[in-house]
From TrEMBL:
Keywords: Oxidoreductase
Molecular function (Gene Ontology), one example: oxidoreductase activity, acting on the CH-OH group of donors, NAD or NADP as acceptor
Reaction catalyzed: 2-hydroxyethane-1-sulfonate + NADP(+) = sulfoacetaldehyde + NADPH + H(+)
Cross-referenced Pfam families: adh_short
Annotated source species: Halomonas campaniensis
SUPFAM superfamilies assigned: NAD(P)-binding Rossmann-fold domains
Protein name, as recorded: sulfoacetaldehyde reductase (NADPH)
Subunit structure, as described in the record: Homodimer and heterotetramer.
Cited PANTHER family: ALCOHOL DEHYDROGENASE
Family to which the UniProt record says this protein belongs: Belongs to the short-chain dehydrogenases/reductases (SDR) family.
Length: 253
């Protein structure tokens, strides 16, 4: 039975991915900080497949290394790592943002992702052919927009780190993908606005955002491709989202 390690399984893409991989019979190693949600997911899915939950903050490199290096034999070999835990904060312009929010994004989206990857690499290398690292990037890593500042830059890191990993893993059989979604309706905007439910509802109202299940389906697709195929980057948007024109600063008329 293949096994998948999903960071940030307590919500959004991570939770939907856990449900999708369980449906296909994969063993699940699920992480997140919110213990109650991990327990609820374990209760929901452990009738279907073996489930191991690890209450983990990806920013804590010692905790990450200890947990991943100590995975029980029944959850090995590790076939897929989904580096999904992440967040955006502070949608305001850069000049109005608290430094702490920038640090939190860097610590989670960059350092956290690197911590987990470093700890899981020996296991994925042992699995070799057919193993995958699926990193959650974002359209924000490629396309600038106002208020994107450190969030977009952290996702640009995810893209380049994924490509560079591909170079080093050549010959090992381990695949790496930067999966870069656009607007998707999860708790993402609630977190970004620090709990402003009205702002979150307003963003998704009157359009058709991607849903967590759409991304879970892509993750499952990527993890189960024939083992000689590596999709380097997969950018995905709702058909109701597109780019916009350059903004111009003009003198008053
Ligand atoms: N929704 C969107 O529009 C898009 C999202 N993304 C990216 O997809 C990923 C998932 O986002 P999404 O599902 O939308 O958002 P959610 O807010 O719904 O889920 C985020 C998950 O990340 C976990 N997480 C956050 N910080 C930490 C941490 N320090 N340690 C461990 N886990 C953490 C949360 O768990 P807990 O709080 O329990 O720790 C939660 O399970 C993120 O990397 C995001 O940047 C990319 C493109 C579009
Ligand atoms: O990563 C999230 C999508 S967006 O908010 O940057 O469009």
């Amino acid at each position: 039975m293949p096994s998948v390690l999903i960071t940030g399984a307590t919500s959004g893409f991570g939770k939907a991915a856990a449900q999708r991989f369980a449906k296909a019979g994969w063993s699940l190693i699920l992480t997140g900080r919110r213990v109650e949600r991990l327990k609820a997911l374990e209760e929901e899915l452990s009738g279907q497949v073996p489930v191991l939950t690890l209450a983990l903050d990806v920013r804590d490199s010692d905790a990450v290394t200890t947990a991943i290096s100590g995975l029980p034999e029944e959850f090995l070999p590790l076939t897929c790592l989904i580096n999904n835990a992440g967040l955006a904060l502070a949608p305001e312009p850069a000049q109005k943002v608290a430094l702490e929010d920038w640090h939190t994004m860097i610590d989670t989206n960059i350092t956290g992702l690197v911590n987990v990857t470093h700890a899981a690499l020996p296991l994925l290398l042992k699995t070799g052919k057919g193993a995958s690292i699926l990193n959650l990037g974002s359209v924000a890593g490629q396309w600038p927009y106002p208020g994107g500042h450190v969030y977009g830059a952290s996702k640009a890191f995810v893209q380049q780190f994924s490509y560079n990993l591909r170079c080093d893993l050549l010959g090992t059989g381990v695949r790496v993908t930067d999966l870069a979604p656009g607007m998707a309706e999860t708790e993402f905007t609630l977190v970004r606005t620090k709990g402003d439910q009205a702002a979150s509802d307003a963003l998704y109202r009157g359009t058709t955002p991607l849903q967590a299940e759409d991304i879970a389906e892509q993750l499952y697709y990527l993890a189960t491709l024939p083992d000689h195929i590596n999709i380097n980057r997969l950018e995905i948007m709702t058909v109701r989202q597109a780019w916009s024109a350059f903004a111009i600063d003009r003198d008053p008329a």
